[in-house]
Amino acid sequence: MRIVRYHAHGSPEVLVTEETDLPAYGPQDVLVRATAIGVDHADVQRRRGTFPLGAPSLPHCPSTDVTGVVEAVGRDVQGLAPGTRVLVWKAPAAYADYVAAPASRVLPLPDGIDDAEATLLGSTGRVALNLLRTAAVSAGESVLVHAGAGAVGHIAVQAARQLGAARVIATAGSEEKREFVRSLGADHVVDYTAADWPEQVTEAAGGGVDAVLDGVGGKQLLTDVRLLAPYGRLVVYGGSGGDTVQPDLPVLDLLGMRTVTGFSMPAVLEHRPRQAQQAVRDLVRMVTDGSVRPVIHARVPLTEAARAHELLEERRTMGRVVLVTT
Ligand SMILES: NC(=O)c1ccc[n+]([C@@H]2O[C@H](COP(=O)([O-])OP(=O)(O)OC[C@H]3O[C@@H](n4cnc5c(N)ncnc54)[C@H](OP(=O)(O)O)[C@@H]3O)[C@@H](O)[C@H]2O)c1
Asked: DSSP characters for 186-223?
C-alpha cells in the first residue's frame, strides 16, 4: 500500500510517497481501507517542526481523521463487520491507503454523509462543538469565532447558531473568506487584519462579547480578553497564526468577571469522554438534518499531499482539505 511520510522537517516537499506493508492490527483493532483523509493545520506545523507542543519523532506519518471501509477486525472486536463504512477518529499513520486503529476510535457512518465531509465529524467538528460547550454558549448570547472560514471555525459558526447564539460574529483574513462565512449564517464578519477590528466587533455585539473562540492565538488574545462582556468566556485552542511568543495573561483584566480557558480535545476525551462522544452524535444529527453544512475546500490525491499542505500554508482554504485515495 502507499503511505505518505517525511524523514526530515521542512517545506511541503519533504512529504514523500512510499510503498509499505499493510499496518498490523491487534485483537482490539480495526483495519480500514481509507477513502478520505482529513488534513489538519497541526499536520503542517508538525511537518515544519514548529508545533507548539513538540515535534514528532522521524520518520513521521500524520495522525488524523479517516473515512473508509472496514477491511478486517481483531478477534475481540464486536459490532463492526468488514464492509461497514466508518469514520476513524485520529487514526495513526493516516496518510495511507490503509489504517489500523482501536475499535473505540471507529464509528459506523450513516448514509447521506459523503466520505470527505464525514472526516469533519472526527476531531474537527467535535472540537468546534466542544469549544462552544466549554464556552457554555447559551441562548441569546453573542459569540465571536476567530478564523471563521477555517476547518474548525466554519463548523463553530454554524453550530453556535444551533446552540441558540443570538449574534454570531466571525473574523476572516480575506474578502473571499468573509463572503464564505456570511454564507454560513454569520451575522457579522470582520476583517481582523484591519486596525479597528476590535471596535468593529464591539459594535457588532452591541457591547461586550459573551464568548470568544480563538485558535489563531498570539497578541490578539489580549484584545480578546478586553472584548469580553462581564461573565464573558474566552476559550483558547490553538496557534494557527504561528506566533511563538505567548502574551502574558492580564489577570487584573479578569476581575470584571471574565474567564479564560484553554481547550484540548485529547484532554476532553480523557476526562469527559461522554461529552466528547455526545458531540459526535449531535453533529451527525445536525449534518443529516442540514442545520450544519461541512464544507470541503479541496479533494487532493493522496500522492499530492504536499499540495494539500501548501493550500493550508498559503492560508487559502475555506472548510477542510482532504486527501483522497482514488
Ligand atoms: N486544542 C485542540 O484540541 C485542537 C484541535 C484541533 C485543532 N486545533 C487547532 O485549531 C487551529 C485551527 O485548526 P483548523 O484545522 O481549523 O485550521 P485551518 O483550517 O487551517 O484554519 C486556520 C485558520 O487560521 C487563520 N490563520 C491566521 N494566521 C494564519 C497563518 N499564518 N497561516 C495559516 N492560517 C492562519 C486562517 O484564517 P484567516 O486567513 O481567515 O486568518 C486559517 O483559515 C489550529 O491551530 C489547530 O492546531 C486545536
From this structure: -SEEEETTSTTHHHHHHHHHTSSEEEEEESS-TTHHHH
On whether both 142 and 220 belong to a single domain, the answer is yes
200-256 confidence digits (pLDDT tens):
999 999 999 999 999 999 999 999 999 999 999 999 999 999 887 788 888 998 999
Q: Would 273 be classed as within a structural domain?
A: no
For residue 111, give the C-alpha cell.
448514509
- Which stretches of 155-295 are assigned E, i.e. beta strand? 167-172, 188-191, 209-214, 228-236, 259-262
Q: Are residues 226 and 308 in the same domain?
A: no
3-class DSSP state for residue 321? strand
Mutate to test the pocket of ligand 1, among 132, 189, 244, 315 (most ligand atoms within 8 A of CB): 315
Q: Is 318 helix (H, G, I), strand (E, B) or coil?
A: coil
Q: Are residues 136 and 251 located together in one domain of the fold?
A: yes
- The residue contributing the CA closest to ligand 1 atom 8 is 238
Q: What domain range includes position 308?
A: 2-113+295-324
